[in-house]
Write a structure and sequence with these properties.
The structure is a homodimer of 188-residue chains.
Chain A: H1 2-22, H2 29-36, H3 40-46, H4 50-69, H5 79-96, H6 98-109, H7 115-123, H8 126-140, H9 149-154, H10 157-166, H11 172-186
Chain A binds a DNA duplex (30 and 30 nucleotides) through helix 1, helix 2 and helix 3.
Chain lengths: 188, 188
Amino acid sequence: MAVLSDKREIILENLLDLITERGFHDTPMSLLARKSGVSVGIIYHYFPSKEMLIDALYVKVKLILGEALASGDIQNMTEADAFKRVWLNAFEFYSNHKKEALFLEQYKALPDCREGEAAEFLQKDKNFALLVNIFRTASQGGVLKDLPMDAIYELSIGVAMRLAIKQTGLDEATKNAIVESCWTAVSL
Amino acid sequence: MAVLSDKREIILENLLDLITERGFHDTPMSLLARKSGVSVGIIYHYFPSKEMLIDALYVKVKLILGEALASGDIQNMTEADAFKRVWLNAFEFYSNHKKEALFLEQYKALPDCREGEAAEFLQKDKNFALLVNIFRTASQGGVLKDLPMDAIYELSIGVAMRLAIKQTGLDEATKNAIVESCWTAVSL
DNA sequence: GGTACTATCGAATGAACGTTCAATCGAGAG
DNA sequence: CTCTCGATTGAACGTTCATTCGATAGTACC
């Protein structure tokens, strides 16, 4: 019984490898099959199309990302501490999951980005609900500057993500200095 | 004589349209030719391959970007003013050149990103040299926090770019509030 | 008017790809 | 043992695409 979902997982793992190494369009199904040690047919047994296959990977990655971001007891912290905690969670996650980060970037750069449809699954995810909630209450509670949510995001999690992708081995002191800078930027 | 480079330009313009609407891989040479009102052959007359064609567009976009960023008399401003000016230049450029911005994002997301080779042209560009210089002297002059250049970039131009791509119609007050936030984040 | 060179065309080529499907396998039920 | 059904295979199919090339027309120089 484990075998069944095993293959699904193996396929998704190899897809992540291939896509980050070669990109969507240089990752033919035949190669994915070979690398995964399965036949082409079996991929179509588990996923209806290449498009859906990629969407499945997107949802999977987004879910583990949500879990990572919301880790720690952020509900019972001050806004400042929760902010910094989430920032560091993001930085650490992306640092240790460069492939996932690159995949997410590539996916979002897709012109026919099916983010909307795939995102429906994510709306129901409790971690994302939690994060959205925290940011919203902090914003309404007079702790954050009165800026658009996009701006707040780009000045916080966005920066964490992009630095994590680029940087390799940032020492603790520098990392903390950057978190503080981000907090300075968004807080009153 | 103008006709010759005209066609080159027409092809590049249509390429930008198509790529931002449909993506690299959904932009066949045949379609580009039809939309440009030329034959497929002529594209290969002006560009050796699709890859080089896209690189040519990249260089072209990067050059006008550099020009836009460095506009204004930023050499004779205080560091704070120069910073804010460049930030606003970036925001405005990307706001008015969404296609160019999207193309740049897609290009950088390319796994086999030939940024390195294409970038050789850009190293010689005076505008980029100027910008790099300004940031460096500001950093060494004790005006900016002692953070990695990547971090400074992501907290400034990076934020401007991403917000410009997403946002539509940010009022002046909000825009200025965001510049100030960025400056707060990176300055001592 | 001959020669050389550039611009232009678009049908033809050949490779690569996503997807299909008829066939095989193997486990579990009756 | 037989029947069923999901898992699995990979050759075959039809399409799409980047690229090539032989031909034609225009232009400039001698």
